[in-house]
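Thread: manganese (II) ion complex, take 2
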Amino acid sequence: MEKRTFWLVVGSQTLYGQDVLDTVAARSQEIADELTKVLPYPVIYKVTAKSNSEIADTVREANYQKECAGIITWCHTFSPSKMWIDGLRDLQKPWCHLATQYNKEIPNDEIDMDFMNLNQAAHGDREHGFIGARLRKPRKVIAGYWKDERVHKRLSDWMRAAIGVAVSKEMKVMRFGDNMREVAVTEGDKVEAQIKLGWQVNTWAVGDLVKEMDKVTEQDIDEMVKVYTDSYDIATDNMASIRYQAKEEIAMRRMLDREGCKAFSNTFQDLYGMEQLPGLASQHLMSQGFGYGGEGDWKVSAMTAILKAMGEGGNGASAFMEDYTYHLVEGQEYSLGAHMLEVCPSVAADRPRIETHYLGIGMNEKDPARLVFEGKAGKGIVVSLIDMGGRLRLIVQDIEAVKPILPMPNLPVARVMWRAMPDLTTGVECWITAGGAHHTVLSYDVTAEMMRDWARMLDIEFVHISKDTTPEKLEEELLVKDLVWKLK
Ligand code: MN
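Output below.
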């Protein structure tokens, strides 16, 4: 993982004298140290900002420092905002305004005008908020006491969104073959995606992959099969198929690493020179943090890698998913999600099994090996990025995953079952109205608020379907957003 840090920039001014500035600096250091202990990434106290040039220099440094993933600002005292204009106008990194104060309580006996001048965040953070609004600068505002767990959780989530932006800006997607013929939603403007999100999406020939596979030795394959058997149960006698998947994984991994790609796509319509669609191979790559999209879906592939990086430990429980079929029995309304082969085992409830089965779709000469498992229960989201023509729309829906209510013994793929919010059929109506794809990223540890922050940081449209959404409200929202985004 890349080293990532966040910078704390604390607003003040010279009006109150050196003693006050020394106190502000010492307390800011204390806050940064405390936050570093409880947050997933270090917080570095950078400066007590007292002048235009100090702020502008700090922001420019933040822009250029690769490891700086965002800045957190706070005004311990009053800090006149005209001196923040140059810096904030040039800011290119995610910004969080933490409206906090050093003391939790108003000290009844101690409080006098000196105390008031030193501890006037309530006053200073309003001046700071005005200039953020006046500059129309995207930012997250988090208010609360800096030692409160709730504040830590929200800062942590904002940090993860900012990490998602850093990963997005460095994202390279390797496409093997083109999109599945005639499919609309997996298409999109790659130039726009690079301008807005930073993604470099390019194509490599399947023939190059086949050549790379030819270079894989039997010993390389032995080592990879050992990794598979350590991680998964083998539920097939067809070791040749497992070995073939190992060969595919090793070859894809070598090409991905050589090009610095963190995501890839392929299509069953273009496997020329290969015996099997990569199943186990793609699944095991995903478990290591790589993004994947089936049928040439480069958008969902990059999003899978980004959500994984935003999750717990930098490789969270997020998976490429596809809505397949519904269970519409009253009181038991669920979506069943799966894919032809490629579901990431990071969302498995138990240890996955390797199975081999016939696959009729595509050019599979041999039965491809794949991981089969049930998805775990829990709250989550599904995410879809679509190209509306002239802009990108990110759709996020809250879901509640359950242990699949049927064993489905003849289903030869990994499966996840969930109920979309606000309820299955209303949720489906909303999703379809917004234009959400059949491919999604399903995540158990990235939240809708994190994705909202991510979309704001990257300046793309965000649509959230939650327990409170109604089709009527959503239709109005989409109409207004369509106008707004045409004006932007
Ligand atoms: Mn698909």
